[in-house]
Amino acid sequence: MIEGMMYILNPACLGLMLLGTAIGIIFGAIPGLSATMAVAVFLPVTFKLSKTLSIAFLIALYIGGISGGLISAILLNIPGTVSSVATTFDGSPMARAGKAGKALGVAIFSSLIGTVFSVVVLMFVAEPVATFALKFGPLEYFTVCLFALVLLSSLISYSMLKGFSATILGLLISMVGAAPVGSATRFTFGFRALNLGFPDIPLFIGLFAVADMLTDTAKRTTEHKIEIIQDYKFKGLGFKLSELAGQGWNYLRSCILGLFIGLLPGIGGSAANVVAYTVAKQRSKEPEKFGTGCVDGIVASEASNNACIGGAMIPLLTLGIPGDGPTAMLLGALTIAGITPGPMLFKNNAPFVYAVYTALLIGAFMFFLLETCGLKYFVKILMVPKYYLYPIIIMMCMVGVYGSNSQIFDLAIVIIFGVIGYLFKKFKFPITPFILGYLLGGIMEKYLIRAIQYNRGNLWAGYMKSPISLVFLIITVVVFIYALIKNIRAFVKERG
Amino acid sequence: MKSSKKENFAYAALMCFFGVFTVYGAYRIPSRASLGLGADYLPKIVGYLLLFLSLCFLIKALLICCPKKATDQTEKAEKTEFDIKPVIKFSATILFLIIYVLLFKKVGFIIMTALYIFAQSLLMVPSEKRNILLSAVLGIVTSILLYLIFSKGLNMLLPNGILKDIL
Q1: Which of A129, A161, A285, B156 is the one with CA 20 to 30 A from B39?
Q2: Whole-prediction pTM value?
């Protein structure tokens, strides 16, 4: 263990990690760039480094990239990465109310808690947890995805119909391109560029960045005069620790959710922040405060998305299965370095494993220090008028989108989904269920079909054989019925 | 957020359109199925779900009482007063983005980005704060900075367009 730690605790490695964290934060904060892209772009740079240095640098990029998304989520209401979608729900309103420092401080602190929690769990329970996850088959994966979608759609307080409509439309979008089963291309209308489906990053940039700008341009002239006044004070972390009183259970629950979702390959951190946020809202005694600048929402989102980091590392180290995009890149780096992840890694190369643990912990604290020290500078971004900021942000997004694939078609997708996002906002259809439907659609279809095939057409028999799936299914049905009754009562009251 | 009878009829029509489109498209997908599970399986489910949602919106629309009278004076005033400026700004924004994408490769990243930032900022800035010089400088500086960082610094391929002999 000491040997592994000493691989990291030297000036060269720490300096490289600091640089990696800073670059990762920038990649995470700029909409259009991502942690995956950061790791992919710098992967060739690490070829000439030792295996420990290269993995430490990439881990720093990873942590910085995942955590950096909160900056634009709070300051610009545009998630820097999909892991920070839910942070916009309360982080942005809080910032617009002049409490940007508090929002950032809470988010950064929560990110630290989430990362440290997940790394500690990784250290102690990696092997047993991975063994449990091995029991998840297609039916379990499908039911968990279904649970996430129904939960989110049902909890749209103003209209369950609109929530489900958005989810189903998201599923529809996810079906464009090559089918996961049967290899037929669907709904491409002859466009070869759509054969692989709609690309993720342009879609999100369109739905958030461009839609936001379009919404702003469509406002009446008088509304442009309203600008945020940044006349607030902050010391230290930007918030008082007493303001986090009562958040203990929220932290614990969100970290566990994030860890568990990060552990499951294919579902990923993009769902964790939204699911944790939704659960926190449902469990809250004041759910109406969510979306207005509530600390609970930021805590749930950031703690869970960072807890995914440790969760995603578990299957990577123990099974060689990446938990998300950045860990898929890390797997490539490990292979190039001649390291074979899996159960034997712990036996044959224990110092390396402890080096990875140390790098994860150091990376978390580096991110925390960098962002805390630079907090006041980050907040100043809000002083720049929106009408100058928006065009620059859109162009930075376009660079990120074009840079990842060099496809003009991706830029067109940004505009198309910008208009779609604007229409969603205008007619008050929720965006989040749409995004989750899109993200989980392909996975759900694949697992559903496999589950039916494995059970020879009798899905119910599969549920009878799988207690895990049955429990999730029952919870899903209960949530749906509860929300339906609540909505019907509200509708009848409205009429009456 | 209450929605009106008219709005719910519109949503019902929209979901019906998507539902019919999806079901029609799903039946045209070659199945290549085993156990009835092919590439058309989920599209059919999604299509029928959309039609079901359409029915739900329709029922909701029919159950909503008569449209409330415009007793709210502000609401009435908002409906009758139509401001063309936001519509022009919105349409111009879409147009700028489309032109940007169409000319991106031919003209090049630096020039198109500078032009876009210049045009978009002038469009969005309130008329009393408009500063053509500032918008122009912002466009040029941002464009060059982005090019240097991403193309030269991070080795991302960005089109040089008509400046390819210079860059």
Answers
A1: A161
A2: 0.72
